[in-house]
């Protein structure tokens, strides 16, 4: 099968399109005929060696954790899905080797959910990691009816999902973004505020008593978070480990079939949309990485693979 591989850490130039063996289907796993893969910042950070202290990489490795495709084979003791089912997954394993930038991929059944019929393959592949990050950060902080939530980075891949999910949970949402993205952030369900100097004052003008929950998806905003948090408020970050010393939660997203199914239900109910800003064919994975590294897209980036 065709796959993107890399044999050493480096920039996107280390990626090559190769012929590799098809992955074996282990117990509790399914093999997918991949239709699309999502591109996330963590993907190119892994290729660059940024997660080497945390995760073992077996070279040559195939990048990619987000995937959407058709179940091609099931392993022992798999009853949740059958051949021919259309699914999506945050297919992270305990090591890095066989990712989604390939014609076929195996994923643990505990990581996948059925693909919403309303989503195209690229949209389905773009949802799992970022959507789960947003969903798990909000639910762990107890966001619900009547909460006021500040989303740092409301126009980003995770932040855009967080705005919609928080609104679906019944919260009032304030979202930071550059002014030229305010119309999109407003359309997602948040009251937009410009980031930068004076941000805390602008948030306080909208929520004089402070906000109940702050979720940080960009980093470097802890001082502002603490300045606008109401007494007894909760906060979390996926980008700043220092948040724990300030009484917050530092989050790392987990694969979770139930949570991913909850996201699929929000999509089917019209409460969650998935915006794909750009897509690339498999052979242009390096270009997809560079587009992600630029960080200027409003929406997700995907790679198309199968027919």
Automatic annotation (TrEMBL):
Pfam families the record matches: ADH_N (PF08240), ADH_zinc_N_2 (PF13602)
SUPFAM superfamilies cross-referenced by the UniProt entry: GroES-like (SSF50129), NAD(P)-binding Rossmann-fold domains (SSF51735)
Gene3D superfamilies assigned: Medium-chain alcohol dehydrogenases, catalytic domain, NAD(P)-binding Rossmann-like Domain
Lineage: superkingdom: Bacteria
SMART domains xrefs: PKS_ER (SM00829)
Domain Enoyl reductase (ER): 10-303
InterPro entries: ADH-like_N, Chloroplast_QOR, ER, GroES-like_sf, NAD(P)-bd_dom_sf
Name of the molecule in the record: NADP-dependent oxidoreductase
Species the sequence originates in: Brachybacterium huguangmaarense
